[in-house]
Amino acid sequence: MVEETLTKPARYVTIARDPAFPVLAHEIRAFDARPAEHTRCTHAAMATVHLLEAFYATHDLAATSPWLSALGATLPLLRGDAWQAIRNEKAQSTPEDYRR
User: Fold this and answer.
1) Is-above-0.70 flag for pTM?
2) Rounded to whole angstroms, how far apart are CA atoms 16 and 21?
3) CB neighbour burial string for 48-80, b if at least 16 within 10 angstroms, e if fewer
4) In this structure, which of 15, 37, 69, 85 has its CB flanked by the most CB atoms within 10 Å?
5) pLDDT at residue number 15
């Protein structure tokens, strides 16, 4: 969703109005509110949700929008958080559950 917004911001103006986006945003907020047993992996996701909502709320769909710049900065953070989540999941599972 973030990569699509970055590459074609005017085309994806309906993402914020799409019924799937509020559901996804709600799920991210719910996961963030849960107690963390390991390293928290939702900070970048929360930042992304807020930035997407702000970007679409301002209606500034120009390629030079500062919101797009901030969204682009979250991509490496999201990838790092995804990697950490995989590592946490792998550490919690038994070798039989998680074979590669």
Assistant:
1) no
2) 6
3) bbebbbebbeeeebeeeeebbeebeebeeebee
4) 15
5) 63
Cα 37 to Cα 71: distance, rounded to the nearest angstrom: 28
Whether 88 contacts 97, CB under 8 Å? no
Domain boundaries, the chain: 2-92
Give the per-residue pLDDT at 34. 79
The torsion of the CA quartet 42, 22, 26, 75, rounded to 10 degrees, works out to 0
What's the per-residue H, E or C state across the chain? Answer: CHHHHHHCCCCCCCCCCCCHHHHHHHHHHHHHHCCCCCCCCCHHHHHHHHHHHHHHHHCCCCCCCHHHHHHHHHHHHHHHHHHHHHHHHHHHCCCCCCCC
Q: What is the pLDDT of residues 38-53, one digit of tens each?
A: 556 678 888 888 888 8
